[in-house]
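Reading a protein record of the kind used here takes only a little practice. An example makes this concrete, so a full record is given next.
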Amino acid sequence: MAARTISKFPLTTAQFTDSDSRRRFDLHPSRRVRALRLRQHGLPHPWLGTNNLSLQSSHIRPSILKRRPVSATVSFSLPTANPERLSSTEKVPKWSRRAIKSFAMGELEARKLKCPTTGTEALLMGILIEGTSLASKFLRANGITLFKVREETIKLLGKADMYFFSPEHPPLTEAALRALDWAIDQKLKSGDGGEVTASHLLLGIWSEVESPGHKIMATLGFNDEKAKELKSLSSEPGPVDD
């Protein structure tokens, strides 16, 4: 019924003559000029932080970042007490990546404990922190863990002043330098090729009898027999995880 009632009303469409359309849609000359300027230069939008918001389509080319070639030099040598060795004609063996990481972790551990220098005890902790070398696995298998070494270090050397800040790279002690050189010398004496490993570093720490690292290892049960066992394991042919 509602549909029939609605259908009785004639549907009319709006019709505009040419004069009406010109009258309704033609702009005043000043407005026409302003519209043209807005179309060319954009709309004023102060709330957007700019006075020109262009409506024109623009073809923006993506900016191409110019990348400079990066050249990095990786050092496979550690500090030594004999710098003339590096400049001599003698071929100095390189340190393995695990040994270098152990050294870096030891230096970082010295900073964490607020030590002014990096000693043999810090190098020992660095080997344990690195965790994947043959030397690290051998220490853990014999009950020497990072927690125990850290605890013995505090007992032996005392707790650092809480207001003391270590340098970014704490310098090596003389005993630590001698341990590094001992490791290189032993590798040269062996006559075989390859790298200086974390096992050589650990045995170098053990060779410094008066050093804190040696004393801590001895306190935790390391001895000459275990040093010989580690040396034998590290010298076995085949791939060594060190």
User: Anything to note?
Assistant: The two ends are 95 Å apart (CA to CA). Residues 174-190 form the longest helix (17 residues). Confidence is low (pLDDT under 50) at residues 1-14, 46-50, 70-74. The longest strand covers residues 50-53.
